[in-house]
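Side project, low priority. Logging it here so it doesn't get lost.
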Amino acid sequence: MNSRNVCSLVVSINLVVFAVGGPPSVSAWQKIEARVTRVIQDVQLVGTNAAARIAAVNDSVSEGTKVRTGADSRVELTFSDKTVTRLGANAVFDFRDGTRNLNLEDGALLLRVPKSANGARISAGAIAVAVTGTTVVLEYHATYYKFLVLDGTARLYRPGHLGDSILVKAGQMVFGQPKAALSDPVDFDIGRFLKTSRFITDFSPLGSEGLMASESHKQQREKSKKNLIDTNLVIFGGGTVVSLVDPAQVAAIDQEKAGPSAIPGSVPPATAALNSGEKAK
């Protein structure tokens, strides 16, 4: 079993910016297509052996077509099974077999898979995520990744590494280097994410707001019982460096709207944190 770095901090990520049973048969995915349902600034579609074209709302996106976003740009794709994918700035994304094989080459995405859908799988370099009836966020770059679950449960794993697989529950996050063994999840503040993330504030309702709010309320109850405690641990911008800041600065994060991305394609300027009551004693 891989040794894991067990942390007890609860980190709220403001992004601007998952062994389950075998996947459904290919025939179950063949009719799933995607269309563009929201475009913010510079978004391009690059088909196989075709020149790049500017994306527009209601454009059809076929499998193999790369979706690229520019600086401070975002896009939403909706599949025929109501699965929703939102990409942050400077992201590169494509899919095959409907939502069966989603590929995040670089950047950040939010994925909402309704319970009525067949599920989805995200591949990002050396890591992968299996998602069913869940809302998740994944940020991936060659040297690091961050994965958060906003409602439900998803499985994060490293293909080809037997046993390196973990279940990540709502309000939990895993971050690290793509080629390193997976670390244990830490807790993050769902409520703060919903208030500040451009994946939420820049788009129409996602459809899973009630589920995410319910998970946030559970965290608030745990706070009232001192099982979860606010801390002054913060991740600024992209990357995985946790900083210690003045508590007043953490409080200010809640009062500010999400601003432009401090690091292209990644996350807004600040992220805050909590702690587990048991570990804090």
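Brief comment: The longest helix spans residues 209-224.
Revisit when time allows.
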